[in-house]
Amino acid sequence: MNNLDQLPKKNILALFMTCGFPSLVKSKKVFDTIQKNKPDVIEFGLPFSDPMADGLIIQEANKLALQKGLTTDQSIQLIKSVSKNKGETAYVIMCYINTIMKYGVSNFIKSIKGTVDGLIIVDLPFEEEKEIRKNLEKHNIYLIKLISPMTDSNRAKRLLHNSKGFIYYISSTGITGSNKLNHKEINKNIKMIKKHSYTPVLVGFGVKSKRDVKSLNETTLTNGVIIGSALIQMYFDLKMNFDKYLKSLDKFIRSIQSR
């Protein structure tokens, strides 16, 4: 069974966190805190040295993890460790193609099968996805599609053919952590996406607060939201006091849950 097939129709909550942040041992506690709140989806970010789509906050999280020597294998073992309490939560890895190629495509997929439900490869062109998508589907892992405001209807139709799991709608051009949420444009583009696919659409990039979550869920056609940078920013706002961070993270997640 793939947990992405069990997502609710509305108010889906997906939470992103960088593996190994702020250290490997502490990262386990961070993910355990996220997991105990039973979000619909957890996105596990695999640290990369040149993350072109990630904003400054996630870049800093990547930097901290890599400086401490985090490996891809350690990230995968971390995910498996957290998955002991997985339940109905869907697990998705978000990474860059270089990470997978260096690990070995076949080895990477084999190492995550049975634990991970979906994979987001930020820099994998649609035209180059066929082989890896087929390999993933053999192991019941979905390749999650990314759609941006720059994606026109014709390309969206091609991109979304046979899409599964959910569609990641990037709410603005640029990098994660954006301050702009144009609800009118978001709704217009989600309408376009839904003409080509019945797969749930989740809005990410710039979703930071309970107010953002509520307004997007209530005033647009989105099926839910993705929050990432805000969860990491909290650690730095608390002057890297880890105990306070875990408590604040737990409180914040509970505050944004709609069910």
Describe the structure.
The chain starts with 11 loop residues before the first strand and ends with a helix. It has a single domain, classed as Aldolase class I (TIM Barrel). The protein has helices at 24-36, 56-67, 72-82, 97-103, 105-112, 130-138, 153-159, 183-196, 210-219, 229-237, 242-256; strands at 12-18, 41-45, 90-95, 118-121, 142-143, 145-147, 167-170, 201-204, 224-227. It is of the alpha/beta class. The chain has a 9-stranded parallel β-sheet. Helix content is 44%, strand content 15%. The model has no long low-confidence stretch (mean pLDDT 93). Helix 7 (153-159) links the parallel strand 6 and strand 7.
Order of helices and strands, N to C?
EHEHHEHHEHEEHEHEHEHH
Number of helical regions = 11
Q: Write the CATH architecture name.
A: Alpha-Beta Barrel
> What is the general shape?
globular
Number of spatially distinct domains: 1
Work out the number of β strands. 9
In which order are the strands of the major sheet placed?
5-4-3-2-1-9-8-7-6
Distance between the termini: 23 Å
CATH superfamily caption: Aldolase class I
Q: Biggest sheet: strands, sense, closure? A: 9 strands, parallel
The radius of gyration computed from the alpha-carbon positions, rounded to a whole number of angstroms, is: 17 Å
User: How big a fraction of the residues is strand?
Assistant: 15-25%
Low-confidence region ranges: none
**CATH topology, anyone?**
TIM Barrel
Share in helix:
40-55%
CATH class reads Alpha Beta
* Category from helices, strands and their pairing: alpha/beta
Average pLDDT rating: 93
